[in-house]
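Hey, quick one: can you model this chain's 3D structure?
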Amino acid sequence: MRQELELETIEKSSKKGKAKEIGVSDLPGVGAATAEKLAAVGFRDLMSIAVATPGELVDASGVGEAVAKKIIATARASMEMDFASGEELLERRARVNKISTGSKAFNDLMGGGFESSAITECFGEYGSGKTQIGHMLAVNCQKENEDAVAVYIDTENTFRPERIIQLAEGAGLDPQKVLKNIRVARAYNSDHQMLLAEKVEDLISKQGLNVKLVVVDSLTAHFRAEFIGRGTLADRQQKLNRHMHLLLRLADLHNLTVYVTNQVMAKPDMFFGDPTQAIGGHIVAHASTFRVYLRKGKKGSRVAKLVDSPNLAEGECNFFVDTTGLKDIK
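Sure thing. Here's the predicted structure for all 330 residues.
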């Protein structure tokens, strides 16, 4: 009965027309108490509600599923989330930023650097340079924007402030200021890792930080350790899928760069070619916008191979990792 009354209220509100500028509390079916519950878990604006699922709103506020669908539909209508022309999308692409890697060859491979509003995944064996790139991006995002903040979710205890100091000095930046603008959190299990990714929203909306980069190093370490055997594979992939889509939503809503590192395994049935394969299967592969395979090269160099991109051709480049950052091979 209560749900029917809520639906009737929503329908009446919808018939009255929608104002161009409305807030969360103006949505039909959302009172002050419901708006407060939604805000507590990160649904503070229309966009966050428009891209949510009915199940997320039900869990967050306790409203019925039908009411949640109406709330989302109204939010989407007010945001004019409909089809757009290719010309309009090209204009939106103008706001995309790119963070330099420090290596011209690597930047050229990535079309100018690591792109915002996207997830870039680098996978490779230990010592291939994945973590070094994460540290470098955390410094270089501040080189291009002194107010930029980098968020580093560390799952394997690989973040080193001493390394940041070296890279900052090599980039001509104040090491103390660079360190101050990096927010680091150690994730102790997969649930904690997912929670920390959700907390990034609070850093942006509540604390007003200008977050330009989110690093997850590494993406799959905890999932790989906690879900063992074929019987748990479906649960692992489903959970990993939710995590990746949360990161993608963060990247898209706030125009920030998401960089994730990924572990690899060797395929025992591979007799010819490179047996190295990234963990996470098709879930991680499809969710990542750009995929880069890192491997060790000759004389201490590293090789980066772009294996997947929506707009760039496949290719590879060589670079060195030294005290001051990533350098081209002369």
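One thing worth noting: Residues 1-7, 9-20 have pLDDT under 50 and may be disordered.
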